[in-house]
Specification:
Helix content is about 30%, strand content about 25%. By secondary structure, the protein is an alpha+beta fold. It has one domain.
Length: about 70
């Protein structure tokens, strides 16, 4: 995925039946971000009972969010 503001974005997709392991997943996203030389790593997690992918939740660091919206170089 690519943002016109910050460039490459890595998405780490998860489905753990509604259980969230945020710290672990953010660490994995950071590793993948480095492997891909991306600006931002994001975790997308399926919500329990929600089949529509648009209803997934997104986890990211505040630093990543700031980079995504253009607040950090």
């Amino acid at each position: 995925m690519r943002s016109p503001i910050c460039g490459r974005i890595v998405l780490e997709s998860k489905d753990y039946g509604g259980q969230y392991h945020v710290t672990e997943w953010l660490n994995e996203a950071e590793v993948e971000r480095g492997n891909d030389d991306a600006a931002v790593g994001v975790v997308v997690a399926k919500r329990r009972g929600k089949a529509d992918p648009a209803q997934a939740v997104v986890f990211m660091t505040l630093e990543g969010f700031a980079r995504l919206v253009g607040g950090v170089d």
